[in-house]
From TrEMBL:
Name of this chain's protein: Anhydro-N-acetylmuramic acid kinase
Superkingdom per UniProt: Bacteria
GO biological process, one term: peptidoglycan turnover
Function: Catalyzes the specific phosphorylation of 1,6-anhydro-N-acetylmuramic acid (anhMurNAc) with the simultaneous cleavage of the 1,6-anhydro ring, generating MurNAc-6-P. Is required for the utilization of anhMurNAc either imported from the medium or derived from its own cell wall murein, and thus plays a role in cell wall recycling.
InterPro entries, sorted: Anhydro_N_Ac-Mur_kinase, ATPase_NBD
Similarity comment: Belongs to the anhydro-N-acetylmuramic acid kinase family.
Top EC class of this enzyme: transferase
Signal peptide: none
């Protein structure tokens, strides 16, 4: 099948779209990435999303509008990747869309209920592309008692397990998350959890203090001084005291956390704050491995993906904290760092069509393995024929 995977992460940069040819399912899955592209968010939209994620500024009218606005943008992402691949939209069999997370409540206090909200309405996407859509991948895991995150560990296992090497696949987007694959790992062996902040605090410091979107290549951090006394205070956050399974998001490490950091350490320069925040990400990743991974598995290499993989200063810091481990980029395994998650949602959509259970209870805390995703048909046509076309009989 030809499947387009769509991802928009916590960094709020824009939409990653990957067109993937997929043969088979489960452990027989074979993929070929035909084309990947990126559709950046305009600054005004990014500000709208940041506002919608902020409890003090958010409102229902804004969220209602954004849900459909993003649906059209996701459709634009599908059309763009097809256009760049020179493949007619009509030849696409399936779309897998993660949507845009605007709030994640894995462990709320009463009277709130465990939940997660991704927007970007799949009906708009299905209508605009006239294609079958699988979306809302987190909900069923939460219904089964899990946190609905992380979602990518199944893909990591399916595509990157090795008989000879123990691997940690570390994604560094807005939030950092890792998948631990022991040598010759079985599905039941997977360990996965969020490690803490990725680029989120660094980006917010750049926006607030320097009026730039992010620290390109870690240049600013490389010029600043890391304040280890500040690191010790930041690591006192409750999230780091929890054992996996665990997940986090902008609710804990977003704008509110960053503004508090600026206020509490107002004597530090912008460069020093950014350097310290970068080290905080590196240190939280290394500490997570030392506490929860290395006692359980022999690790030969750490494979980095996501936007953080482009931050040279961050990678140097991680390597300095883990000097005896080999650090490589996802690109070395045949999928680029930037496209990995979009490719992942193409594969998850394919797995849903074949009724494969793709959550990882050991990673999310769910009671059992369940199907992830919901199906949205295009606005007209023979639904039986559509399902037959996508190999479900």
């Amino acid at each position: 099948m030809l499947v387009v995977g769509l991802m928009s992460g916590t960094s709020l940069d824009g939409i990653d779209a990957s067109l993937v040819k997929i043969d088979g399912f489960g452990t027989s899955t074979k993929i070929k990435v035909i084309k990947s592209t990126f559709l950046p968010y305009e600054q005004t939209l990014k500000e709208e999303l940041l506002s919608a994620m902020d409890k003090k500024r958010s409102n229902v009218e804004q969220i209602c509008s954004l849900n459909f606005k993003l649906g059209y943008l996701f459709a634009d992402g599908v059309k763009k990747v097809c256009r760049e691949a020179d493949i007619p939209l009509s030849q696409i069999d399936l779309i897998g869309s993660h949507g845009q997370t605007i709030y994640h409540l894995p462990n709320p206090l009463p009277p709130l209920t465990k939940s997660s909200l991704q927007i970007g309405d799949p009906s708009v996407l299905a209508y605009e592309t006239k294609t079958l859509v699988v979306s809302n991948f987190r909900a069923m895991d939460i219904a089964a008692g899990g946190e609905g995150a992380p979602l990518i560990p199944y893909i990591d296992w399916l595509l990157f397990r090795s008989k000879r090497k123990g691997r940690i696949l570390q994604n560094i987007g807005g939030i950092g998350n890792c998948t631990v694959l022991k040598r010759n790992a079985k599905k039941e062996d997977i360990i996965a959890f969020d490690t803490g902040p990725g680029n989120m605090i660094i980006d917010e410091l750049c926006r607030t203090l320097l009026n730039i979107p992010y620290d390109a290549n870690g240049e600013i951090a490389s010029q600043g001084k890391v304040h280890h006394d500040v690191i010790a205070k930041l690591m006192d956050h409750d999230f780091f005291k929890k054992s996996p399974p665990k997940s986090t998001g902008r609710e804990e490490f977003g704008r509110e956390f960053t503004l508090k950091m600026i206020k509490n350490f107002s004597d530090l320069s912008a460069k020093d704050l950014i350097a310290t925040a970068t080290y905080f990400t590196a240190y939280s990743i290394a500490e997570a491995y030392k506490r929860f991974v290395f006692p359980e598995a022999k690790i030969d290499e750490i494979v980095v993906s996501g936007g953080g993989g482009n931050n040279k200063t961050l990678l140097k810091m991680i390597q300095s904290l883990l000097p005896d481990k080999k650090l490589i980029k996802m690109d070395d395994l045949g999928v680029t760092s930037d496209e990995k998650e979009a490719v992942g949602f193409a594969v998850l959509a394919n797995e849903y069509i074949y009724q494969q259970k793709t959550n990882m209870p050991k990673a999310t805390g769910a009671k059992e393995f369940v199907l992830l995703g919901q199906l949205t048909f295009p606005p007209y046509g023979d639904q039986k024929k559509l399902l037959t076309k996508t190999l479900l009989t």
